[in-house]
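re: that chain from earlier
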Amino acid sequence: MARAVPEKREDPGRHEPWDGWMDEAAAIVAVKSPNAIRTHIYRDYDGTPLMRVDTTLVARPGKKADKIFQPRTPFVMPDGSKIIKDEASPTGESPRPPYNAELLAGTEGPVLYVEGEKCADALRAYIKDALPVLALYGNNPDGTDFSKIAGR
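^ sequence. v structure.
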């Protein structure tokens, strides 16, 4: 019996923000997701924008609209070209910082783990000295690096 030869996977490129990628991502959203109702920016601990997540409502006749979350992440491909992928994180990359990571240095209070960017933003408005964070993948924190907030 012959064994199937696995297909060679294309190099997915590497996640690497470049100057101006946020403007390019905004242009993509304007075309692909004109109904975007909210945008949240995930940043590194130093404030570098790593990813944007656009929330869009998609109408369904006779039913409640579906809420769709569309991540946009900058990648540099093996040939040096720069693209914006519609995914949250490249496979095999180290975990990313949580939402609101850039605010860590400016807060002394506790870190609160919440579900949803909207909730984190609302809580931050009410509790000024606390840092509400959430994992990159919502309720699945495996892809998120919480090491810098450990003990808070």
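The mean pLDDT is 77.
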